TrEMBL record:
Cofactor: Zn(2+)
UniProt KW Zinc keyword: yes
The record's free-text note on cofactor binding: Binds 2 Zn(2+) ions per subunit.
Keyword line: Hydrolase, Metal-binding, Zinc
PANTHER family listed in its UniProt record: ALLANTOATE AMIDOHYDROLASE (PTHR32494:SF5), ALLANTOATE DEIMINASE-RELATED (PTHR32494)
Matching InterPro entries: Amidase_Cbmase, Bact_exopeptidase_dim_dom, Peptidase_M20
Higher taxonomy: Bacteria, Pseudomonadati, Pseudomonadota, Gammaproteobacteria, Chromatiales
Matches recorded under CDD domains: M20_bAS
Positions with a binding annotation for Zn(2+) 2: D107, E142, H398
Tagged with keyword Transport: no
GO molecular function ontology, one term from the record: metal ion binding
Coiled-coil spans in chain: none
Residues reported in the UniProt entry to bind Zn(2+) 1: H96, D107, H205
Identification of the protein by name: Zn-dependent hydrolase
Length: 428
């Protein structure tokens, strides 16, 4: 991209956006990938508030302080870095540091390290913006304990009851995990940010889906973010001998689970939309003996859609289906709703800005919804918030073979830098 072309991306009289250093960004992202990396499966596991996750947060703060940025961690485990005075409202960028088990290196982490690269680039340019630039690396976005704790704490959407009562699918309590990480659980209530403290929030993320890669677009400008709900379901029957119990006299909890899994396509056809998703993601059978009929099936169910009413209708349909299946197999059905995240629209002001900047750079881009949940959907509650996607090769994410090409990362990072440059130089 020529300097002449790039100068037209900015308001008259404002210098062009400084160029990010993709090699430096790449090296830092690969260094972050060492936290929680398991070479036996070539994957990263940084579970929220686990040892690898907290070590990565400490490393990030030390790195930012060493490079001359102010750094801190709030009571929810969110890590902040800032370029500019703390008393002024910030243009904030970032994403999350935690991961699902056996993940790739880009999900969430790319947005955090891109924000760091933009701070570095702007600091090196030596130009004092009107508004401070801020990085945030949110905590527990992947929903180990339900929800998106870090972003919800920032927006004021956590309660003492949730902090003290939440647990993961294995029964580990959020309060215990935070305490072990050196964070008093109720301290997360103090992480709330008033709307006056943040002028905008922008996030770069891999798409985690196949659309951009399939249609050959470089940038996705996100218009809306899907809502998400999560249940932990128990189907309880009767454990019995696998050889002596007749097939028609069993209370087999696994058969109930299998019947429900088979019903999912029908439920979506009848009560959902083309944006609806229902996923059984984690299953445990008890007692777990090859020669014993499962007496209990414990599993997670995650539902998604861009319409809250559709989400409620899907829940009702799942409840009815599971109740009928339980009666048919002589089972007891119980569920716990771990989380409910409303679908949200991104800020029109920010999406329009991304559109304008992408067009002026001559990039191939399109507006699109996000089927996955993101920190941005909670930050929309307190500020103008928006996000852009870069392609995921084959649409793969939450897996070791998650991949985004470095040239696409460079394009997305520079576009985010363009937006940050303009937002940070707005009059006020």
């Amino acid at each position: 991209m020529t300097e002449e072309r790039r100068a037209h991306d900015l308001p008259e009289g404002l210098p062009p956006t400084p160029d990010i250093d993709i090699d430096r960004l790449k090296a830092t992202l690969l260094k972050l990938a060492e936290f929680g990396y398991d070479d036996s499966v070539n994957a990263v596991s940084r579970l929220g508030f686990g040892e690898a996750d907290m070590a990565a947060r400490r490393w990030l703060m030390e790195l930012m302080e060493a490079e001359g940025f102010s750094a801190r961690m709030d009571g929810a485990g969110n890590v902040y870095g800032r370029l500019g005075p703390k008393e002024k409202a910030s243009v904030t960028m970032g994403s999350h540091l935690d991961s699902v088990p056996s993940s790739g290196i880009f999900d969430g982490a790319l947005g955090v390290i891109t924000a760091l690269e933009i701070l570095r680039t702007f600091k090196a340019a030596g130009i004092e913006p009107n508004w401070p630039l801020e990085l945030v690396a949110t905590s527990e976005e992947e929903g180990r304990f339900g929800g998106m704790l870090g972003a919800q704490a920032i927006s004021g959407d956590v309660t003492p009851e949730f902090l003290m009562g939440a647990h993961d699918a294995d029964g580990n309590r959020l309060a215990d995990a935070m305490t072990a990480a050196g964070l008093p659980p109720l301290g997360a209530l103090e992480a709330r940010r008033p709307p006056s403290s943040m002028r905008a929030f922008i996030e770069l993320h891999i798409e985690q889906g196949p659309v951009l890669d399939t249609v050959g677009k470089t940038i996705g400008v996100v218009e809306s973010i899907s809502g998400v709900w999560k249940w932990i379901i128990h189907l309880r029957g009767k454990a019995d001998h696998a050889g002596t119990a007749p097939m028609d006299m069993r209370s087999d909890a696994f058969m109930g689970l299998a019947d429900f899994a088979h019903a999912i396509p029908r439920i979506i056809d009848e009560h959902g939309t083309d944006k609806s998703r229902l996923t059984v993601g984690k299953v445990e059978l008890k007692p777990g003996n090859p020669h014993t009929i499962p007496g209990e099936a414990i599993f997670t169910l995650v539902g998604r859609d861009s319409d809250a009413q559709v989400m409620r209708e899907l829940q009702d349909a799942c409840n009815r289906s599971l109740s009928a299946i339980a009666r048919r197999h002589g089972l007891r059905f119980e569920y716990e709703q771990v989380s409910w995240l409303d679908p949200m629209d991104c800020s029109g002001r920010i999406t329009d800005l991304f559109d304008t900047l992408a067009a002026r750079r001559g990039l191939s881009y399109q507006r699109m919804p996000s089927g996955a949940g993101h920190d941005t959907q909670f930050l929309t509650r307190i500020t103008d918030a928006g996000m852009i996607f870069v392609p995921s090769v084959g649409g793969v994410s939450h897996a070791p073979d998650e991949l985004t090409h470095w040239e696409d990362i460079e394009t997305g990072a520079q576009l985010l830098a363009d937006a940050a440059w303009i937002l940070a130089h707005e009059p006020g």
